[in-house]
Design goal:
The protein is α/β, with parallel strands linked by helices and 197 residues long. Helices cover 19% and strands 24% of the residues. The chain has four helices and eight strands; from the N terminus they run βαβαββαβαβββ. An eight-stranded mixed sheet has the order 4-3-2-5-1-6-8-7, with helices on both faces.
Amino acid sequence: MRKIIVLSMVTLDGVMQAPGGPDEDTSGGFKYGGWTAPFADEVSNKVMLKQMESADLLLGRKTYEIFASYWPKHADSWPGINDVTKYVMSKTMKSSPWQNSIFLKSLADIKKLKNSKGSDIKVWGSGKLIQLLLKNDLVDELWLNVYPLTLGKGKKLFDGGAIPAAFTLLESTVTPSGLIMSHYKRAGKVKTGTVVD
């Protein structure tokens, strides 16, 4: 069985839309594209390189289109990006010139992929896809990069809700600019109790 690892850049209020640049995703009139740029530093870059270590990718259609228009021409910045398999969840796309792209149509396809042999599978961006995975308990690990700002509007990581689930912190880094980069592993069901004085 392969692990599905979700990697997401989010604000304190959970916005994940267009972290990489002003024109990345302006849908809904979003005006803050590129909100992660002011927080880049040597510490965050080191952790990002670890997060970008080679693994197959599972992407939603919109994120895939953004990646396919950028990464084939900038592969030096993400070694292996062109060589790994890109699995794309889409009901409309069936092919792409970007090498090693395979198109999935359903949750059943994702479950079959997860149960196959191969490398870990990383999910970047892809908000609706992440929500589908969370609702169906298919996320094994989360890498959440939480940036110290609020944006109010924009696509949010947990907009569609998620099943109750517990996670264990595996590692975390706090950068000089206040970015918190945390790696969590799925840890069973939510436990409850009473807090006693």
